[in-house]
Design brief:
Number of domains: 1
Distance between the termini: 38 Å
Strand order of the largest sheet: 6-7-8-3-9-10
Largest sheet: 6 strands, mixed
Number of strands: 10
Strand content: 25-35%
Length: about 250
Amino acid sequence: MKNHIIKTENISKTYNPDTVPVHALKAVNLEFSKGEFTSIVGPSGSGKTTLLNMLGGLDKPTEGHVEVDGVKITGMKDSKLIEFRLQNIGFVFQHYNLIPVFTAKENVSFIMLLQKRSKKEMEHRAEELLNKVGLGDRMDARPKQMSGGQQQRVAVARALASEPKFILADEPTANLDTSSAMNLLDIMEKMNKEQGITFIFSTHDQRVIDRARRVITMVDGQVHTDEIHKESSSTITENDSQRIDTE
């Protein structure tokens, strides 16, 4: 691939090396380009979540290194890595990780507060993103006042708020019913196609896999297959957009 934004070179990860070694990753070499909509799949223990954590700098490889936009993040000091993640990588987690005492708007704004953006810019972008994910009328709602699907949409808006180079999503639909999951996927696929936002998922959810245009299958810590799928058969219609706004 050309113009990659993420590259791994022979990354391996071994847990408990001095007792009972667990080889979570074994010499993985991958590249990801801007605009991808990619799923990393595999059974439990295959290494998919470990790989996603390596791509996001949330874990460090035992061997090898990871580059993001030409910058080698492996070996960075923790303080520098935290700042790099803040400026370059967006995360969507399975359990949402919203701040319970914050409103939807405040949750989306928080990462921009850490980036030291102006109050005016934070408010404008938070409102813009919440409108894009169909939550324009829920900006002042707190997490406990929202459904799981709505909370996950807030999490997507929050991930986008920092204007990252890519979004990493770990099992983003695992806790959602079918309607909420498909709604969330509609939103992310629309953003990917219309705005070129890069999404990389770790998932075992067939609903996510069916939407992906690239599917990387992990088995026993290694890349088993890396396949380009045909363009998703789903299309975002005007009716879909109306449904996203009202659900």
